[in-house]
Amino acid sequence: MGTRMSGRTVLITGGASGIGLGIAHGLAAEGANLVIADLNADAAQTAADAINKSGGSAISAHVDVTSRASVTAGIELAAKTFGQLDCYFNNAGFNKPMKFLDVTEDNFNTIMSVNALAVFVGTQEAAKQFIRQGTGGKVVNTASIAGRTGFSSFAPYSASKAAVISITQAAARALAEHNITVNAFSPGVVQTPLWTKLDKDLEEIGEGDSGFDSMAAGILVGRAAQPEDIVPTALFLASSDSDYVTGQTMAIDGGMILV
To answer: Would you call 187 helix, strand, or coil by DSSP?
Structure first.
């Protein structure tokens, strides 16, 4: 066990699977108190149990990121259980690919609601908690390579992740006076349940050739990422190592998108 996050409390939305779960395990191994916030309460509890079993410290919280009241309840639970909140990961997100000309208002709005508006609300509520505590704090958002370049079969997702980058910058400016840093990381192709489902969805709309394997083929380091590849950057952004970094979106994509 490391100590870089010793005594720090971290809440991760979408923390029960994929990138969120990888980050949770990585931060727990460095001594953080984890709040695994997820829409899937059972999976969140399973994740928390696994961390506790391996000598870490974690609780689960049933959180729907599209509900401000639910987000606030998760933050309150974190503060009540561990004394205060130090870092908030806006990580929950989803995608439902559709061909550009087939995208509906419902598809667009649902993706924007979870991936963009929820990041905005999560940042607001985490910041209010940090200000109440008088401690400062850190917000870390999950962006994507799709926020840097638009993909034809998931235009709303690309738009939502571009919004995450903009929200990160705006929040960093707005919250600096409160000693709150706001950063994001931008993964590329990561081997997670989200991608497995994405591949299936792309097949269904006849876009199978633009899926995981074809995208992974363009990665300079020669392989797709595992959630563990995200952990060192997440740890940097959650720890005091990044106190002089704010408003940034750090690419962790093996060199897919060079800007």
So the answer is: strand
